[in-house]
Specification:
This protein has helices at about 20-30, 45-55, 75-85, 105-120, 135-145, 160-165, 185-190, 220-230, 235-250; strands at about 5, 30-35, 55-60, 90-95, 125-130, 150, 170-175, 195-200. It is globular and about 45 Å long. Helix 2 links the parallel strand 2 (about 30-35) and strand 3. An 8-stranded parallel beta sheet has the order 1-2-3-4-5-6-7-8. It is α/β, with parallel strands linked by helices. The two termini are about 15 Å apart.
Length: about 250
């Protein structure tokens, strides 16, 4: 079985103590590729170095909306420079997060729009972080057409999903689907076209059922796959093959 974790922050310090051991276990359980999104400019060097060390890791670079106060104007020029000098698979993790009460909506929209322009110019897909802002994100994607990407941890409506699909996006499903009480999310992913689903952990965050307060890990991708199989008609093997193919296609992974 060949599986991909399409969204995992393996560069975070929570993994410093046992990162190599985790990757060994991933390989043995069929998780052969891991996409590592960047969140702030000061983390990009570390991320690139890590991905150069382990061939199964694939870097994406972006300025995350939750770190809006850390980002500087010159970070956008630095992003352009890194794209020129390094092989990255996507711009991300980028997007809009209007969940927190004190969010700076205007600043987030400006930063997101600028990164979409960079993705457009460089013909790169994007990894989207969206909370309480799907309609605004869809509007901006229509204004800045790009070559698709992944809506990370998608939890929007079926109508919003259809809009994203038309724009060339697939949807990341992670640990939340393992929670039996997540009935709306499980119903959504039981109905989405299989051609639009990829697996993810968002490790170290988004714990699986019975793992609250524990660090999440890319080693949990097989368990997420099993939970997806509980709600879909396809076999485990067909789900594995399709989600891997979808991720390879949208991110141009070889």
């Amino acid at each position: 079985m060949y599986l991909i974790d399409s969204h995992c922050h393996l560069d975070f310090e929570q993994f410093d103590i046992d990162r190599e051991n985790i990757l060994f276990h991933c390989q043995n359980s069929g998780v052969k590729d891991v996409v590592v999104p960047g969140v702030t400019a000061d983390s990009w060097d570390r991320l690139i170095k890590l991905c150069n060390k382990y061939k199964m890791l694939h870097p994406a670079l972006g300025l995350h909306p939750l770190f809006i106060d850390k980002h500087q104007t010159e970070d956008l020029a630095q992003l352009e420079d890194y794209i020129t000098n390094h092989k990255i698979v996507a711009i991300g993790e980028i997007g809009l997060d209007f969940y927190l009460a004190d969010h700076n909506k205007a600043k987030q929209i400006k930063l997101f729009s600028e990164q979409l322009k960079i993705a457009q110019c460089n013909q790169l897909p994007v990894l989207l972080h969206v909370r309480k802002a799907h309609d605004q994100v869809i509007k901006l994607l229509k204004e800045h057409p790009i070559s698709g990407g992944i809506v990370h941890a998608f939890n929007g409506s079926r109508q919003q999903a259809e809009q994203y699909q038309k724009l060339g996006f697939v949807f990341g499903v992670g640990g939340a689907i393992t929670h039996p009480r997540a009935t709306r999310l499980r119903a959504l992913f039981s109905e989405l076209p299989l051609s639009n689903i990829v697996l993810e952990t968002d490790a170290p965050d988004m714990p699986l059922q019975d793992m609250q307060e524990q660090r999440n890990s890319p080693e949990n991708i097989p368990r997420i796959l099993s939970s997806l199989a509980e709600i879909r008609p396809e076999s485990l093997q067909d789900l594995a093959s399709a989600t891997t193919h979808n991720c390879q296609q949208v991110l141009n992974l070889k």
